[in-house]
Amino acid sequence: MRELYLQTLKLPDETGAERSYDYSILVGEMDVGPYSCESYGIKIVEKGGCEASVPHVTCSAARIDELSELLLRNGVTPVTLNDVLSDWL
Q1: pLDDT given at position 13
Q2: Mean pLDDT across 39-67
Q3: What is the radius of gyration, based on Cα positions, of the chain?
Q4: At what angle do helices 61-74 and 81-88 cross, to 10 degrees?
């Protein structure tokens, strides 16, 4: 699986301390019946902290672009990624 780096966001935590998060799109392959197609997922890594990744979210490049814009615009962290993804799907 490959990673396509998107952006780094610096966001304040609940105490006001600044934290840094790297956002990436995961690019892999997924079997769909007798065929394979490119699949996309998301990875968020806090520098010096936790990380979360969800591979194979969609086979649509347009949909993963929508999701990544949503995550960046709202400053989603590794802790809240799965909740946001559940609502988005």
Answers
A1: 85
A2: 94
A3: 14
A4: 130
